[in-house]
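Explain this one:

_____
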Amino acid sequence: MNYKNLITIALRALFNNKVRTFLTMLGIIIGVTSVITMLAIGSGSKQSIRDEIGEMGSNMIMIQPGNGRFGGVRQSASDMQTLKMTDYESLLRETNYLSKITPTVNSSGQAVYRANNTPTTIYGVNEQYSDIRGYSVDEGSMFTSTDIQKAAKVCVVGQTIVKNLFPDGENPLGKNIRFGKIPLKIIGILESKGYNSMGMDQDDILLAPYTTVQKRILAINYLQGITAAAISEEYSTQAIEEITEILQINHNIQIGQENDFNVRSQQEIMETMDSVMDMMTILLGCIAGISLLVGGIGIMNIMYVSVTERTREIGLRMSIGAKGIHILMQFLIEAVIISVTGGVLGVLLGVGASCLIPIITGWPVSVQAYSIILSFLVCTLTGVFFGWYPAQKASRLNPIDAIRYE
């Protein structure tokens, strides 16, 4: 079997019908372009979310009150008062896998400076919170342990607070603002972090000593949460186990009883988001893959037409000695050439479109090598699969009947 001659014959047949060949390729081109672009958008979004979560502290661990019963009535986590200062002190003293830890309390309200005000949330934390969350002080300084002991009326503000309360460019350092009825002196300004992937403004933040928020604003003696950082991301699981064990002892929770607290890590959140984004990427790829299926059906349709148009040619070739396998390979090669050429053009357009999307829309995009290989492999298999049946039909024609065909 002379494959060179078969390829030459296949190419000549395709060039004799350039428009029809291109239109047949178009389905494959669109399909491959769609698959690469959709997978690039999915992968880019996934990586963007991972980066955003990583900026918050990939080794961060959050401890919150859990659901429980009080007086026979099941309480929500927000109503529970199960976390105490003794829990924070126990974790501070006994844990081996935590590098930093802070109590957390918060309250929503209005921050006011002269005639300007803005709705925000004040977070009561200690001096380690900025390191845990990845915040840096741009001007001034963070409050100290002395400020915490004295429940000092001081605060550190984000850039959004600065813009809203000091729109004329006045230097906020040393100025007194009010949160509710409590005056707070600004001693530090945080560097801007912008919006995260979930649309939350990370600069709309007001930090104060947790004792100040506890005593002067909320008038409570319990904690709304504890935020910590594992010594590294790889030790997050051990840190969670250690925290859980210490708190179970502190809260006298017996084996088999439900914990009255929840411990979550950024790693868990990352894994959950990865799972969701993987499902979204697969969904986008499947939707785009439908166009590849349509392109394959287009190849089969055109090959059927080609077999019908060239029935007499097939009969003549078979009458002078061509075997069924030669006819089969001829039409199969045509289908593969169409699909592979369409695949190459689709890959080029897909990569090009993926490069243009961030420029035009600002969406994060990441072209993965596997998406290119997968798309090219699928379009090749599509050509073979959908070209096989028409090619087989052509190879089984009776030479005499084919020559007589009008």
